[in-house]
Amino acid sequence: MTEDVNLDQMLDLATPWCLMVAATLRIPDLIAEGHHDISDLATVAGCDRDALHAVLGHLVAKGVFQQQAPGRFECNRAAEQIASRRFLDLDSIGGRMAHTWGTLLDYVRTGLPAYQRVFGRPFWEDLAAHPEIAADFDALMGPAGHGMPDFDIELSGGWDAIRTVVDVGGGTGAMLASLLRRHPHVRGILVDFPGTVARASEILASAGVADRATLRGQSFFDPLPAGADLYLLKSVLNDWPDQETVAILRRCAEAAGPAPSTGTIAVLGGVAPDDEPRSLGIDMLVAGGKTSTITQFTELARQAGLEILAAGPQSSGRFVVECRPTPAPAREPTEPAREAPAPAREAPAPAAAQEGACMTQEDAEATRARSLVHGQVCYLQMPAADSTRAAAFYEAVFGWQTEHPYQDFESPGLIGQWVQGRPSAPDAGPMIWIHVADLDETLANAVQHGGEIIDPPSPDGPNRTLATIIDPEGNPVGLASHSSPQ
């Protein structure tokens, strides 16, 4: 039997916005301070009298506020609750999320977030550019928004063997504090952005576990603290699409170490049973996040070098997945090749050429490491809001190779990684300069693939010409064309 649905009530867009406007203007607080008349309220709130009157009149009709006489307002219990809901403020993270719902059609049509179209930057870059909004987001994700976690994580192997847990993307430490309080023999490492972990000290201290917790301010796309027994991903993967999910899992796998002496990765959030009904969350719209089915996640974990140990609901009702690094396949011994007479005066082939197709990634990295000299730049991290877009640009313009679906790249003489969550720095910091064979052709190619020329070609001495571009991620890149001296 189908229940009656009141579509008119469901389509009421006015009431939520009126509530948020009243919260943003602090109307309940102003009334509590003695400002009851609509003219007085409008003056102290700094807004239009008639417009505010219309908003409050709508809320009175919905049971929020009371109008004892025309134009004279009082708070009731519903109005008082507005004051306690800090995330209704349109000038805070609540406003960011409220406005983002207006991009739902773009998201449904493309499957990609349109947050940047509204606020000028992707979500994580926007938080980095607005510390006060980032602090609100941390509060929303922490005790102020979700309360202190009151549940344990039930590991398939128990907690007796766990000595160190790394809470990856753990925000201000509420979950880590809860776990350390429940398991006094465990030490914890909290990993999140520097500004976020700086706000964790009070929570950890109030839980009495600050002496067993270490704070690591960094992106979780960078290498994680290695050698821990447990890596926790709570409410992290649901904020990211597949490619970034694989990158985060891969960092956990690298830090957990190769099998058999390896740590466990526990995932809460971002994974659900195959038969669980789908739902829509704001994380999808702001950052392109998703919740994978366990079947989909198993494939993502495989790409990251992980295998599933256990998956299922716990007594808390939360769905938890445990993973560990996949044991590397044993290398079969090969029959030594017969030696052929070497041509006279021919130098021995390098190790990489001798091993040929049997060369593993570890072998290649070892060979490259042997070729480095002191002082040589050996690794590069490039900020990228969209690593797929960044990879396409650098492959098309400079021929860099990216290891899909991960974020690692290789350029001539240098390897590196696209880093999400780290804002670009168009006006500060070190700058990368790339040698190009044909400067004019490279500039045209860069513009064709989404770049922008900011400094046109100019001579720098008799044999070098320089130009500067901005890549699609907002990073400045110098181009240098070198000609042979006459």
Number of helices: 22
Q: Which geometry do the CA atoms define?
A: globular
Largest sheet: 7 strands, mixed
CATH homology group of the largest domain: Vaccinia Virus protein VP39
Gyration radius from CA atoms, angstroms: 28 Å
Strand arrangement, major sheet:
5-4-3-6-7-11-10
Given as residue ranges, the uncertain stretches (5+ residues, pLDDT < 50) are: 337-365
**How many β-strand stretches?**
19
- What's the structural domain tally? 3
The name of the CATH topology of the largest domain is Rossmann fold
| CATH class bucket of the largest domain | Alpha Beta
Mean pLDDT, to the nearest integer, reads: 82
The helix content is: 25-40%
Second-tier CATH architecture of the largest domain: 3-Layer(aba) Sandwich
C-alpha termini separation: 89 Å
Q: Could you tell me the strand content as a percent range? A: 15-25%
What structural category arises from helix and sheet content?
alpha/beta
Write the layout of secondary structure elements.
Elements lengths: L6 H4 L3 H11 L2 H6 L5 H8 L3 H13 L4 E4 L2 E3 L2 H8 L8 H8 L3 H7 L4 H5 L3 H7 L1 H11 L1 H4 L17 E5 L5 H9 L4 E6 L1 H4 L3 H6 L6 E5 L12 E5 L7 H15 L7 E5 L2 E2 L9 H6 L4 E2 H10 L2 E8 L5 E7 L25 H5 L5 H11 L7 E5 L3 H12 L2 E2 L5 E4 L2 E6 L12 E4 L3 H10 L3 E8 L4 E7 L5 E7 L4
Parallel strand pairs: 3-4, 3-6, 4-5, 6-7, 8-9, 12-15, 16-19
Antiparallel strand pairs: 1-2, 7-11, 10-11, 13-14, 14-15, 17-18, 18-19
Helix pairs in contact: 2-5, 10-11, 21-22
